[in-house]
Amino acid sequence: MYMMEYNNLVELAEEYGYIVATPMGFNERGWYGSRGTGAGNRRGGNSGPDNLGELSELDVMNVLEIVREEYNVDERRIYLIGQSMGGAGTWHIGMKYPDIWAALAPMAPAIGASRSPDELSAARRLPVMVVPGDADTAVDVELTRRWVAKMEELGMNYEYIEVAGGTHFSAGRQNIDKVFAFLAKHRK
Q1: Burial bucket for residue 155 (CB in 10 Å: 0-12, 13-18, 19+)
Q2: Tell me: the pLDDT tens digits for 51-93?
Q3: How far is CA 139 from CA 48, 101, 133, in A?
């Protein structure tokens, strides 16, 4: 899901004073390391290399570094958000590099059943907003609910918006303004 297509994303970024970068990863099926680095990334006939997730994660981190070098970035206000595969990547990269981010916002996160919510302990200090739809046919909302239950157990600072009737593609789009408002409340 290409987030720059979200309605009002650019206007919201300007309103909140954000620089928005939307790295695409190695290719459209990169999974940003959230499915590991092996051939398990080759779903749907994907012809990517065995380390596709690793390369996509590297793309995100390289884009972040370029933005930091080229713009006046407030290091206390670096956020990570993503939709679908990017939501899974938000979890993965957020947990792997928790000291970079001021907050996370995975939307319709396509985190696989092989990933454990126990991994959240690595990012327990990070504020998180999670936005799934309860009518999502691509990602079982029950998986997201398990991650939210773990956030509750860990005492994390989080907000959860489960969109009644929200689909895989609509939940985040309908709530991007709330995501930006949530992010604006948090600094490192």
Answers
A1: exposed
A2: 888 888 899 999 999 999 999 999 999 999 999 988 998 999 9
A3: 23, 25, 9
Residue type at 40 in one-letter notation = G
- 98, burial (CB in 10 Å: exposed 0-12, middle 13-18, buried 19+): middle
Taking the chain, what is the end-to-end CA distance rounded to the nearest angstrom? 28
For the chain, counts of helices (H) and of strands (E):
5, 4
- Say if residue 22's pLDDT is above 90: no
The answer, as to whether pTM is greater than 0.85, is yes
Nearest to 32 by CA among 80, 91, 89: 89
Which residue shows structure tokens 């290091």?
A: 75
